[in-house]
Write a structure and sequence with these properties.
The protein is of the alpha+beta class. The protein is 15% helix and 35% strand. The chain folds into three domains: 42 residues, no CATH class; 43 residues, no CATH class; 313 residues, Methylamine Dehydrogenase, Chain H (7 Propeller), CATH 2.130.10. A hairpin with a 4-residue loop joins strand 10 and strand 11.
Length: 483
């Protein structure tokens, strides 16, 4: 703003005001011209903004220290030092780190300079519409009725322990399964035993005809009545558990049958001969198709909940995704560095598969089987033997070998470890989930079965699972007639 004073012949400037900008230098030149004409030029400072304490906002290169929060700056520097130390020493758990970040976000709010905000301040911030006391009151007295608890009690001791003598210590076999009628089947050496979870009754279902033969895999049909049994002598048998009688014997493999999976009336079997055979148990000529993609033993088989995709894992470190209508694999996934035995389909999200690798790999990987992409990979620091998704929570349970022989519970999708269950003294080879989804049984090379009640369901979790199951679509279970 410029005023011309004809009465005074002096130049008036505000005290301490420096000619540092282009406009001020131009004003000075204009003043000299006016003085030559006998006029006086007075330069007034710009008007203050409403609510500002000081109209001067600082130079482009000199920050305003009064607008800085030096305590927050010191806090951020200390946090950086702690983070670097924790990364080097690997002493901070993911849960503690997540808690620390959330605490800092809530306490510091907009003051935290680590959230991409500028550290140096060149002008004062606008005043908040809320007073400091009002902000604190909002934080302290906000409605907590709808807040969700971030934890629940998980028992770290097994609910029950059963002996399992002569359980074969072989990573590539599948010797445990729980039926929809709440009957647990376990293969012990040459025989298959049934344990009724409701009555506690134990019975022997079958035994191999040869003493040097042994059971290599078992799998319940969806009706909970029939059970498939794979034998070391290259045979697949189907038994009626309610009658205790053999229904059918099927051949086709040239080596032991280490994995089995049902999909309605179709039974898929994987053998040491590296082949997968799809058997139609209703037909006399039972071999419907043969899938070739692995070069070594097929140790893991699992059909998706929709019945449209089959996942197979092998000792060749490969994971294949097969479409129900084709004999050519849809995807070949080679990210694992060891045998892929542990396979589990997500019950609440379609096309989501978890796989686990052996000793040389030790990773749990989560896949989008619709696109063939890996969504997440976690190094568990131990051989992954089996995987089970929770039906009530977004969690996954894994069993491991050397060195802790433990079970680990992970939250999905963050893959933060929630709990670690110990008690087995040898590698935990197999996992099976109860029909209601609350209990998981583990079978280990220490010849024991341990029952863990890790997925106690709440009304809210049941509602979430039902909603996701409805979105994903459900496979109608029908009685299977076996010829």
């Amino acid at each position: 703003m410029v005023q011309i004073d004809k009465q005074h012949k002096n130049l008036f400037c505000w005290p301490g005001h420096m000619f540092t900008t282009l406009q001020e230098r131009q004003g000075c030149s204009l003043n000299r011209r006016r003085r030559s004409l006998g006029l006086t030029l007075t330069i007034l400072p710009p008007p203050r903004k409403p609510g500002s304490q000081n109209g001067y906002q600082g130079d482009r290169y000199i920050p305003s220290r009064s607008a800085m929060d030096l305590d927050i700056a010191r806090f951020n520097l200390l946090c950086e030092a702690k983070e670097n130390t924790s990364m080097l020493l690997n002493i901070t758990s993911p849960i503690k780190e997540e808690y620390r970040k959330k605490l800092a976000e809530n306490l510091l709010q907009e003051k935290n300079a680590k959230d991409g905000k500028k550290i140096l301040v060149f002008k004062k911030k606008k005043r908040s519409t809320l007073k400091e006391d009002e902000r604190l009151n909002y934080l302290l007295y906000c409605d907590k009725s709808g807040a969700r608890k971030s934890y629940r009690h998980i028992p770290h001791l097994p609910e029950r322990i059963l002996d399992a003598p002569e359980l074969v210590d072989d990573y590539y076999l599948n010797l445990l399964d729980w039926s929809s009628k709440n009957v647990l089947a376990v293969a012990l050496g040459t025989a298959v035993y049934l344990w009724n979870a409701e009555s506690g009754a134990i019975s022997q279902l079958m035994q191999t005809s040869e003493d040097d033969d042994y059971v290599t895999s078992i799998a319940w049909a969806t009706d909970g009545k029939h059970i498939a049994v794979g034998i070391n002598s290259m045979e697949v048998q189907i038994w009626d558990a309610s009658k205790g009688s053999q229904v059918r014997r099927m051949s086709g493999h040239t080596a032991r049958v280490g994995s089995l999976a049902w999909n309605g009336p179709t039974l898929s079997s994987g053998g040491r001969d590296s082949r997968i055979i799809n058997h139609d148990v209703r037909a006399r000529d039972h071999i419907a198709s043969t899938l070739k993609g692995h070069s070594q033993e097929v140790c893991g088989l699992s059909w998706s909940p929709s019945g449209q995709q089959l996942a197979s894992g092998g000792n060749d470190n490969l994971l294949h995704i097969w479409d129900v209508a084709s004999t050519e694999y849809l995807y070949r996934l080679s990210d694992h560095q060891a045998a892929v035995k542990a396979l589990a389909w997500c019950p609440f999200q379609a096309h989501l598969l978890a796989s686990g690798g052996g000793t040389a790999d030790r990773c749990i990987k989560v896949w989008n089987t619709q696109k063939g992409t890996c969504l997440n990979s976690l190094d568990t620091q131990s051989q992954v033997c089996a995987l089970v998704w929770s039906r009530h929570y977004k969690e996954i349970l894994s069993s491991h070998g050397y060195s802790k022989n433990q079970l680990c519970l992970w939250r999905y999708p963050s893959m933060v470890k929630i709990a670690e269950l110990t008690g087995h003294t040898a590698r935990v080879l197999h996992l099976a989930q109860s029909p209601e989804g609350t209990t998981v049984v583990s079978a280990a090379a220490d010849e024991t079965l341990r029952f863990w009640k890790v997925f106690v369901a709440s009304d809210k979790s049941n509602a979430i699972v039902r909603m996701h199951a409805k979105e994903c679509g459900s496979l109608l279970l029908k009685a299977v007639q076996i010829r």
